[in-house]
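Question (not urgent): is this output format expected?
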Amino acid sequence: MMFDELSESEQAKVRHVLNRLFEVNLLVRDKDREAYAIIRRHSQAFEAYFQFLGWELTVDERHECVFLHLPDGRLRRRLDREQTLWLLVLRLLYEEKRQGLSLADYPMVTLHEIRSKFETFRIEWVGRTALDKLIRLCAQFQLLEAMDEDHRADDARFKLYHTWMYVVQAHEIAQLTERLERYDAAEEGGLLDEMDDTAPVD
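Got this back:
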């Protein structure tokens, strides 16, 4: 077996990381340094293991993040309309904010900027309870981090991690913008049906 030569303690760490990636398929070095170091240390074994299972593991050393997914999209988490729109708007903001930044810097966005982007595309803003759930969803998948205790305030800041690149690929940004521009909040189906395959969470 590919991990048999490791010590018992190292095997235990590897098992923990494997289970963690199956549970949450995105990982940021700055959020979990030990897990990221273990993946890098045994990258070939990790890649071989996941390849045997039919998964693809991306270890993005340039942006210091990890992405695990099934190429055919099986087991992908189904997102509702509100979650889908939130993720797509945040993906666009990430792309805008990262321009001109060094790799060491993470884009920052305020809640006011997120709300303004919703207004730009004439998308109905989310309620307070829904906002809390959406922020928790993104935090769980290491997509963002709330920088202020009151994340409902207009000036609340959010750090956007580079894992957003794997929510929607860069070459799909123009297509995403076009679909958001013609989105009608009163229309059933529409954007959610078109964009379902871009959901990042397996």
